[in-house]
Amino acid sequence: MKIPSRTAAVLAAACLVLAGCSKDSPTGNPPAGSGPGGVGVDLPRADSDFWNAYARYVPEKAAEAGVELVSTTNSQNNVQTLISNVDSMVTQGARAIVMAPQDTGAIGPKLDELAGRGIPVVSVDTRPDTGQVYMVVRADNRAYGTKACEFLGEKLGGRGKVVEFQGSLSSVNGRDRSEAFKECMSTRFPDITVFEEPTDWEGGRAQAALETRLATDPDLRGVYMQAGGVFLDPTLQVLEQRDLLVPPTDPRHIFIVSNDGIPQELDAIRKGEIDATVSQPADAYAGLGLHWARRALAGERPAPGPTDHGSTVVELPNGFEDQLPAPLVTRDNVDDPALWGNGSGS
User: How far is 125 from 222, CA to CA, in rounded Å?
Assistant: First the structure.
């Protein structure tokens, strides 16, 4: 995938849509939450460099869009805390909610309750399994797994051993990335052995799994990290301790592909410590999440089809999804200024 054209479209057009310039014209009846009002934003966690970057973008994008932030909370990867935070924001006057539920199954009843009260919800990064949402702002997570598989498969020449740090399988993102990676490996690279390591998005669990795997399988050739924001540092620590943090030209090099596109990952690619990542735009997540919340408050209904920010809106059984592109980043394009991880706000 070519970075400059698609990623630049996302980042440049985020400003356009925040100014109200979107191709997907409103149609149909307005939601019950229409009218002026403030927006409550719940941050999903504070232990990930990706989500910390997203948190920094939220007030900046709110100011650009003229969105009133009623409250910003952090649910710390706990769905019950998320529910409590949402209730508190509604009490404080939030007329729309932007959230990123990590447990995409358990949040459904709360979403339906909010819809019944006329409070539209925008879900960023994750698509709830059930429950009514106004819009999901999300990149193609199955593509993350497929791109990671293709990269490792080609680098390993179709043979060898790979460890996969799986995200939480209670999250649609963890499931999508894991299923796509497995499907691709099984069909395209059957001679590669994949060790699936559940982590629940916890860096400590990934670190322990890698230490154990290197002890039992010292000929490990590759690593797929489903979230560089939590897995990068512990992975590099283990490799450094074992004198395996070596450049790609060294036969001991372990090829690593990640997901997120945080500045730390880009620096690690430049240093030859990891080899690739799939970049999901934290800035566009923040900007477009607030953009759709504002449109919901204005009583507009999304329309399926292409947008002016390089994505496509599709209709879901429980709402709509704005599907954003996410490019593969390697040594060849790591310095592309269009990547959000190279921006000043990252």
Answer: 26
Tell me which residue has tokens 């200024």.
Answer: 337
Q: Taking CA 323 as the corner, what is the angle to CA 66 and CA 163, rounded to the nearest 5 degrees?
A: 120
| pLDDT confidence of residue 36 | 56
Over residues 55-71, the mean pLDDT reads 96
Residue closest to 203 by CA, chosen among 170, 181, 176, 228: 228
342/346 Cα distance (integer angstroms)? 7
The amino acid present at 325, given as its one-letter code, is P
CA–CA gap between residue 50 and residue 31 (Å, rounded):
31
User: What whole-number distance in Å separates Cα of residue 123 and Cα of residue 47?
Assistant: 19
What average pLDDT is seen over the chain?
89
HSE-CB at 244 with a 13 A cutoff on CA atoms is 23
The residue-averaged pLDDT of 195-200 equals: 96
Tell me what the mean pLDDT of segment 64-73 comes to. Answer: 95
Contact yes or no for 57/289 (Cβ under 8 A): no
Which residue blocks in the chain are alpha helix, DSSP H? 3-18, 49-65, 79-91, 108-116, 141-155, 172-188, 203-216, 228-241, 263-271, 282-297
Paired with 43 in beta bridges are 74
* pLDDT mean over 103-125: 97
What is the C-alpha separation between 292 and 294, in angstroms, rounded? Answer: 5
Residues 6+ apart with CB under 8 A from 249: none
Does this model's pTM top 0.90?
Answer: no
For residue 25, the model assigns a pLDDT of 34
Rg (CA), the chain: 20
Q: How far apart are CA 249 and CA 30, in angstroms?
A: 58
Query: If you ran DSSP here, which 8-state letter would residue 204 be given?
Result: H
Binned at pLDDT 50, 70 and 90, residue 31 comes out as very low
CA 104 – CA 175 distance, rounded (Å): 11
For residue 337 the two structure tokens come to: 């200024």
